[in-house]
């Protein structure tokens, strides 16, 4: 019998911060978005004192001080590293794994008919292994379809103390689960279902296939079948290539100077090139964009968005070449007196690096030499930490970079920030 399991880390960003700080395991913890703007992660204790997701930091500053809430800036290198550790464990636990997001993954499993206890024990073993090896709390939902496993995970997180739920299509608990808890049903679907008198998962299961198809099309029909226990979705294969790659960030303050914009776009082009090489792809078109601060726009025309694209002489993933062309675009976009708040670079026209189309006047030895330089840079930066080697145009001060006054050390990716005991 085929089963699906969804393993989801609880309050992932906040839990990652608690792993390396045992003193705050039972304290309310929040993690803020880029430039320390809004709450994007909350520990269980932070939820209990009423902190909402997405609320601006300044709005709850008094509550934070009153309740002793521990505040952290986003630490994406740490979160990515911890996520990789969890996913490596899951690949050891199941033959098929679909990494669905940074903190959750679907597993495909085989068990004998009516092996409910074995399925439940398996979920507990996975949960305990992640807790012991990585010290991150998880919930595991298991069902015979991806939709049921996702719903089971919701039940495990909100309706059980064990953190594991095995859900059959005819489980009585579905009469108490609102349709909004079902994967894929947002506010629009909820309103349309409510008009038909459908408010719980069990009531939706009783809907006719003809009505579901007429009202919601083939997507709705698949949702109904999945909820009734008939698999319609398999695990998606790992992403091995991209159609587009975007790198963009907001600045910690408004930027007026062209030199700072050139510094920023050099950093973003560097990151873009690393991603292209990671997926073994090259780009033949890039678009650079700038955004003025929409809340403090000083322009008379109130224009906020500026962009320009360029076709590259030949497709590339070379950092130096991407920096050169993106800098030219920045110079043509820049207007003195504008307060820029965000910049970004988008690579499109991606293709595998193994099928690179060149031309007669290209120095192939030069291309091969540059490729070896990039490989050497990547190898050093992987071994010694990002930005160990970088292009001078990226600068060293980076006063425009995002604000992160409460960022914790990058314990798992920087030698100089290893935990000291």
Description:
By secondary structure, this protein is α+β, with helices and mostly antiparallel strands. 38% of the residues lie in helices and 21% in strands. It has 12 helices and 13 strands. It has helices at residues 12-19, 44-48, 61-67, 76-93, 116-133, 146-159, 187-195, 201-205, 209-227, 258-278, 319-333, 364-384, and strands at residues 2-9, 29-32, 39-42, 70-73, 96-101, 104-110, 138-143, 164-166, 245-255, 281-292, 305-316, 340-348, 351-352. The strands form 3 sheets. Strands 5-6-1-7-8 form a 5-stranded mixed sheet. Strands 9, 10, 11, 12 and 13 form a 5-stranded antiparallel sheet that branches. Helix 10 packs antiparallel against helix 11. The chain starts with a strand and ends in a 37-residue tail after the last helix. The relative contact order is 0.11.
Number of helices: 12
Strand content: 15-25%
The counted number of beta strands is: 13
Biggest β-sheet strands, sense, barrel: 5 strands, mixed
Uncertain stretches of 5 or more adjacent residues: none
Widest sheet: strand ordering? 5-6-1-7-8
What string gives the helices and strands in order? Answer: EHEEHHEHEEHEHEHHHEHEEHEEH
First CA to last CA: what distance?
Answer: 48 Å
Rg over CA atoms, rounded to whole Å, is: 25 Å
Give the secondary structure arrangement, pairings included:
Blueprint lengths: L1 E8 L2 H8 L9 E4 L6 E4 L1 H5 L12 H7 L2 E4 L2 H18 L2 E6 L2 E7 L5 H18 L4 E6 L2 H14 L4 E3 L20 H9 L5 H5 L3 H19 L17 E11 L2 H21 L2 E12 L12 E12 L2 H15 L6 E9 L2 E2 L11 H21 L37
Parallel strand pairs: 2-4, 7-8
Antiparallel strand pairs: 1-6, 1-7, 2-3, 5-6, 9-12, 10-11, 10-12, 10-13
Helix pairs in contact: 10-11
């Amino acid at each position: 019998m085929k089963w699906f399991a969804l393993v989801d880390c609880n309050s992932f960003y906040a839990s990652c911060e608690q792993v390396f700080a045992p003193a705050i395991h039972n304290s309310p913890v929040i993690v803020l978005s880029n430039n320390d703007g809004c709450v994007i992660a909350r520990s269980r204790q932070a939820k209990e004192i009423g902190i909402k997701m997405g609320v601006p930091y300044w709005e709850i500053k008094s509550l934070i001080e009153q309740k002793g809430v521990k505040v952290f800036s986003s630490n994406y290198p740490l979160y990515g590293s911890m996520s990789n550790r969890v996913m490596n464990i899951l690949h050891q636990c199941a033959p098929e794994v679909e990494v669905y997001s940074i903190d959750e993954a679907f597993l495909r499993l085989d068990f004998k008919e009516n092996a409910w206890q074995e399925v439940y024990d398996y979920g507990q073993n996975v949960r305990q292994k992640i807790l012991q090896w990585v010290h991150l709390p998880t919930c595991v939902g298991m069902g015979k379809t991806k939709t049921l496993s996702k719903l089971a995970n919701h039940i495990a997180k909100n309706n059980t103390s064990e953190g594991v739920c095995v859900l059959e299509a005819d489980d009585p608990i579905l009469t108490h689960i609102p349709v909004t808890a079902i994967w894929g049903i947002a506010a629009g679907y909820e309103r349309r279902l409510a008009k038909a008198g459908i408010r719980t998962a069990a009531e939706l299961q009783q809907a006719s296939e003809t009505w579901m198809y007429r009202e919601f099309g083939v997507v709705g029909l698949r949702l109904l079948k999945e909820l009734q226990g008939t698999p319609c979705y398999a695990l998606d294969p790992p992403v091995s290539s991209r159609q587009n790659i975007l790198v963009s960030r907001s600045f910690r303050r408004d930027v007026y100077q062209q030199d700072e914009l050139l510094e920023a776009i050099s950093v973003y082009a560097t990151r873009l090139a690393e991603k292209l090489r990671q997926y073994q792809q090259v780009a033949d078109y890039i678009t650079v964009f700038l955004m003025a601060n929409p809340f403090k726009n000083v322009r008379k025309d109130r224009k906020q968005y500026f962009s320009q694209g360029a076709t590259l002489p030949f497709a590339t993933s070379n950092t130096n070449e991407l920096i050169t062309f993106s800098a030219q675009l920045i110079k043509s976009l820049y207007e003195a007196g504008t307060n820029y708040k965000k910049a970004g670079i988008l690579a499109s026209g991606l293709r595998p690096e193994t099928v690179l189309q060149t031309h007669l006047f290209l120095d192939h030895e030069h291309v091969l030499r540059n490729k070896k330089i990039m490989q050497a840079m990547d190898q050093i930066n992987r071994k010694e930490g990002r930005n160990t080697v970088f292009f001078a145009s990226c600068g060293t001060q980076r006063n425009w970079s995002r604000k992160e006054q409460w960022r914790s050390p990058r314990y798992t990716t920087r030698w100089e920030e290893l935990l000291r005991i």
